[in-house]
Structures are given as structure tokens and as C-alpha cells.
Amino acid sequence: MSIISPDIDVLLDDAENDRFLLCTMAAKRAHDINDMMCGQRDRAIQLQSAIEIARAADAKPLTMAFNEIARGDVSFDPESIDLTNE
Question: For residue 1, what pLDDT is reported?
Fold first, then answer.
């Protein structure tokens, strides 16, 4: 049984079994999500109640990034990085 959801094996499969690549992919996507959420905060305050905003903020950007990687919504371009250990 895994405590992590999605399962780490699924995530590693999407990152060429490279945990450092997985970490980089998730961190970059989480940063993008965080920037997007912060940019929408002022608009959301005007349009939604505090309870609705709190519900939307329950998911952490890193969790959202890992879920997107597991679904295949986020990937990397192998041409843009060097996967060799030289």
C-alpha cells in the first residue's frame, strides 16, 4: 500500500525512471500553478465567497502537479535536456 497518491512508480514511469527529472518537472509545474493561483486571487475575492475560495485552495500546487504528471497532462521534451550521465 502506498501513502503517496499517485503512486511513485507511475510518476517515475513518466519521468524516464529519473527521480531528479520527476522532481524538476513537478517543481516547475507547481511553480506555474502557484503563479496562476496568486494571479487569480484578487479576481476570486471579488467574485466568490470566502468559503468557496477556501475550498478551492485545499489542493496544494505540488499535489496538483503530481496528479497532472500521472494523468499525462505534463511531460518533458527529451530534446531539450541531456539525460546522459557524462
Answer: 42
